[in-house]
Design brief:
The protein is of the alpha+beta class. The protein is built from four helices and three strands.
Length: 118
């Protein structure tokens, strides 16, 4: 059984909405790392595959139909993990990936119009 993830309420997004205030250098680095990792079409498809997979996680053995070889899939999954977008867990010979709990909320919040612009 997969380990339980942190409840969404306990997760603090990385960065404020762009319209709230200027980002700090650290916030900009974090956001840029996430968006840069998703700037590659294969990585975006892999991220989407994991995020939309039933149960919220996908075995690397189930992720192959993205138009590249399995070693390339593993490389891109590693890059997504390094950017903080995915978490992984080894179970026997397979690695299972899931979206980090705060990622979708954080990325959405960055692009959300804050109260100042309303």
């Amino acid at each position: 059984m997969p380990k339980s993830s942190t409840p969404p309420a306990a997760v603090v997004p990385c960065c404020p909405p762009l319209t709230e205030r200027p980002m700090t250098a650290e916030e900009a680095e974090t956001a840029a790392r996430m968006f840069k990792a998703l700037g590659d079409p294969v990585r975006l498809r892999l991220f989407s595959t994991v995020a939309s997979h039933p149960g919220g996680e996908a075995c690397v053995c189930d992720i192959s139909d993205v138009g590249v070889s399995q070693p390339t899939v593993s490389h891109h999954l590693k890059k997504l993990k390094e950017a903080g977008l995915l978490l992984s867990e080894r179970r026997g010979t397979w690695v299972y990936y899931r979206v980090a709990p705060s990622v979708l909320a954080a990325m959405g919040q960055i692009l959300t119009t804050g109260p100042a612009a309303a």
